[in-house]
């Protein structure tokens, strides 16, 4: 197994909610609380969860784009959690991000060449004379034609725009890319093209990905390992193949049961998760999933469960995961799939 | 044995009365570059007590189809031809005032973004009360006599009952909130409750769950299914997500570039798709628990100002023949009411 490229230790990202007259925050929205996670070099780690669970904030926090209240982020062995923006610059080129809406993340007044040149300036290995050559090569990598280089973003379709965003992310020779819902705005057939491109690039350029999505069915196609996030905390990390067949956390099971499958033969009663997503300004005590959990007991209300290892690179946060595992309560759902 | 059973089904099928018949619906938008032929000869039936899915990629004309049915697109710079038969009347040739009595009452619609279809400056309570007074005055009077209460109390009781039906809880508090203060899932359930107040014969759901999380989506889908079974409402469900169609719909119509290319029962579409576009679309769908490599359809949706001659799919199709480039394929009806527009099956 490869080494960890990124190690997160008890990362907290909070946003001030109401401010008092003196500008001090009265309460916090705890978007990410106490997240510890490692991302292994060369892997694609998936991050799933409902909207508002803090998955995008976590992705941004890793790149130091969101405020860090406490915790440590190690990137390629160095602690980057306290560096100021100047000291961060050499690291920035190594980490890139691709966003959900490609149209909004490309400047409409710039040609594709200008957009790519902006990023190429950050790449110390490319000299000024080579910008054009490099830009054409980048377009070639993402399967666009060289003559596209002097066009403007609006002349492209959504899928092509997302390719341009990926080309821009690759311009700095990064080692790590965060894809924040990068395929959610695309049609299925275009989505399949982008995913195939991502997988190709990962093999060719030895990249490490964090793939954030709310779409569970896509995870298995893209990722090797998946982290499930709920109300600001990661509740389970598991190999993608195993996660939905043998979930260890009740929330993972609930998520899986809610996903419709594109097969009318296996039509199932869609699982209904009771209650609403908790407010991050006032999360429930103990295990954050307890108000919606079918298996809750007194301890769940009082105490937040610790991580329990379930495999080499997988773990779960649940008081009763062993009991549920032995009883096979969570696996039963496999038959109904 | 099987064969006979199949024939029997076929004989019964035409006896079912369609509640909505769309015939040759053609819509063009006049633009500076010329006319965009958004829809061309769209025809389908919606039967009682069924959920029909209309699936297709962005820009295939799904939303324009349903919006034209209710005449919701501004008439300026638009040309519409064809007929939409509902209740033995043609909705397209009906004056706007008359259509107003059908729209919202007999045919109701739920849109993708629930918050933009709820008025943000009135509380949720005020809006549902107004609609109850409009549609359900006999019910209010009956309740008034029965419970010996004021008119307002009767309206509130009905509102609570209706909101409870769509699975909302804590209604007392909710009635005092504004649309900005509730979550997307709650807003969509509220919106559905509003469109059901008049007990419509047809409910059109335009990407009603696309903006929601899977867990909330599961709620809404179950709600739709129950509705269809218990209240006999016919639902036209527009979605780009084939797995939703597989889960809850009885029949699926696949649209491509303004034409319906295939209509069949859900099982048939997924088991035995005929049109090359349907096959391509199905292969691109990621499926939970099945890690097959995703394939895709090369190329993209054509420019509708200058659509390809003949079959609009021919330049992306692996099986394209000479005739596909010249002639528009007619819709063929195969066994079990499987309709497909493709020369491969002629």
Any overview of this molecule?
The complex is a heterodimer of chains A (337) and B (346). Chain A is built from 12 helices and 12 strands. By secondary structure, chain A is α/β, with parallel strands linked by helices. In chain A, a hairpin with a 2-residue loop joins strand 11 and strand 12. In chain A, helix 3 packs across helix 4 and helix 5 packs parallel to helix 6. The longest helix of chain A is centred in the middle third of the chain and has 18 residues. Chain A is globular. The C terminus of chain A is likely disordered. Chain B is of the alpha/beta class and 346 residues long. In chain B, 36% of the residues lie in helices and 23% in strands. In chain B, a hairpin with a 2-residue loop joins strand 1 and strand 2. The radius of gyration of chain B is 22 Å and the shape is globular. The N terminus of chain B is likely disordered. Chains A and B meet through helix 6, helix 7 and helix 9 of A and helix 8, helix 9, helix 10, helix 11 and helix 12 of B.
Layout of helices and strands:
The complex is a heterodimer of chains A (337) and B (346).
Chain A: E1 4-16, E2 28-40, E3 44-48, H1 55-62, E4 70-75, E5 78-79, H2 85-92, E6 95-98, H3 112-120, H4 131-141, H5 158-170, E7 176-180, H6 188-205, E8 208-213, H7 216-222, E9 225-230, E10 233-239, H8 240-243, H9 250-258, H10 298-302, E11 308-311, E12 314-316, H11 321-327, H12 333-336
Parallel strand pairs in A: 3-8, 3-9, 6-7, 7-8
Antiparallel strand pairs in A: 1-2, 1-4, 4-5, 9-10, 10-12, 11-12
Helix pairs in contact in A: 3-4, 3-5, 5-6
Chain B: H1 2-12, E1 18-31, E2 34-47, E3 51-55, H2 62-69, E4 78-86, E5 89-90, H3 96-102, E6 107-110, H4 124-135, H5 137-147, H6 151-165, H7 171-174, H8 184-196, E7 202-206, H9 214-231, E8 234-239, H10 242-248, E9 251-256, E10 259-265, H11 266-271, H12 276-283, H13 322-326, E11 332-334, E12 338-340
Parallel strand pairs in B: 3-8, 3-9, 6-7, 7-8
Antiparallel strand pairs in B: 1-2, 1-4, 4-5, 9-10, 10-12, 11-12
Helix pairs in contact in B: 4-6, 5-6
């Amino acid at each position: 197994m490869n080494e960890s490229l990124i190690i997160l230790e008890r990362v907290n990202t909070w946003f001030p909610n109401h401010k008092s007259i003196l500008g001090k925050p009265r309460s916090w929205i705890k978007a990410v609380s106490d997240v510890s996670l490692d991302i292994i070099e060369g892997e694609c780690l998936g991050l799933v969860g409902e909207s508002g669970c803090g998955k995008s904030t976590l992705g941004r926090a890793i790149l130091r784009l969101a405020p860090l209240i406490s915790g440590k982020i190690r990137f390629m062995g160095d602690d980057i959690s306290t560096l100021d923006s100047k000291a961060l610059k050499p690291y920035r080129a190594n980490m890139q991000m691709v966003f959900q809406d490609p149209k909004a993340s490309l400047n409409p007044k710039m040609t594709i060449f200008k957009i790519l040149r902006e990023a190429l300036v950050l790449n110390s290995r490319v000299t000024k004379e080579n910008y054009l050559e490099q830009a054409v090569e980048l377009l070639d990598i993402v399967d666009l034609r060289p003559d596209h280089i002097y066009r403007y973003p609006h002349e492209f379709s959504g899928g092509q725009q997302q390719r341009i965003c990926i080309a821009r992310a690759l311009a700095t020779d990064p080692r790590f890319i965060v894809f924040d819902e990068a395929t959610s705005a695309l049609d299925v057939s275009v989505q399949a093209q982008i995913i195939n491109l991502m997988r190709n690039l990962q093999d060719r350029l030895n990249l490490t990905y964090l793939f954030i999505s709310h779409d569970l069915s896509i995870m298995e196609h893209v990722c090797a390992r998946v982290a499930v996030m709920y109300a600001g905390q990661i509740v389970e990390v598991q190999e993608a193949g195993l996660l939905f067949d043998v979930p260890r956390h009740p929330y993972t099971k609930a998520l899986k049961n809610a996903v419709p499958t594109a097969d009318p033969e296996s039509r199932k009663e869609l699982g209904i998760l009771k209650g609403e997503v908790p407010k991050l300004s006032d999360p429930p005590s103990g295990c954050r999933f307890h108000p919606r959990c079918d298996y809750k007991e007194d301890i769940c209300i009082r105490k937040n469960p610790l991580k329990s290892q379930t495999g080499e690179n997988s773990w779960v946060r649940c008081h009763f995961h062993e009991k549920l595992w032995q009883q096979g309560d969570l696996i039963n759902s496999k038959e109904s799939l | 044995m099987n064969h006979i059973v199949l024939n029997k089904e076929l004989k019964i099928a035409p006896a079912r009365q369609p509640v909505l018949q769309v015939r040759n619906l053609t819509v063009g938008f006049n633009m500076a570059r010329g006319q965009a032929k958004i829809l061309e000869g769209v025809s389908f039936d919606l039967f009682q007590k069924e959920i029909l899915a209309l699936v297709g990629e962005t820009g295939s004309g799904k939303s324009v189809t349903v919006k034209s049915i209710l005449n919701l697109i501004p008439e300026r710079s638009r040309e519409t031809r064809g007929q939409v038969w509902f209740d033995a009347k043609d909705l397209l040739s009906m004056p706007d005032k008359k259509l107003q009595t059908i729209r919202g009452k007999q045919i109701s619609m739920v849109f993708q973004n629930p918050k933009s279809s709820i008025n943000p400056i009135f509380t949720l309570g005020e809006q549902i009360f107004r609609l109850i007074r409009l549609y359900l005055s006999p019910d209010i009077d009956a309740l008034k006599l029965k419970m010996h209460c004021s008119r307002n109390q009767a309206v509130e009781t009905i509102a609570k009952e209706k909101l409870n039906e769509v699975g909302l809880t804590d209604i007392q508090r909710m009635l005092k909130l504004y649309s900005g203060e509730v979550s997307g899932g709650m807003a969509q359930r509220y919106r559905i409750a509003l469109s059901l107040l008049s007990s419509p014969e047809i409910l059109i759901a335009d990407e009603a769950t696309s903006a929601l999380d899977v867990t909330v989506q599961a709620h809404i889908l179950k709600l739709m299914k129950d509705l269809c079974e218990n209240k006999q409402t016919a639902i036209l469900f527009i979605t780009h997500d084939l797995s939703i169609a597989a889960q809850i719909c009885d029949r699926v119509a696949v649209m491509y570039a303004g034409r319906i290319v295939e209509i069949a029962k859900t099982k048939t579409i997924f088991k035995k798709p005929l049109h090359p576009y349907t096959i391509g679309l199905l292969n691109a769908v990621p499926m939970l628990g099945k890690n097959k490599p995703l394939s895709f359809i090369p190329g993209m949706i054509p420019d509708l100002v200058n659509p390809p001659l003949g079959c609009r799919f021919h330049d992306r199709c692996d099986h394209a023949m000479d005739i596909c480039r010249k002639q528009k394929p007619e819709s063929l009806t195969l066994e079990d009411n499987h309709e497909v527009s493709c020369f491969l099956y002629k």
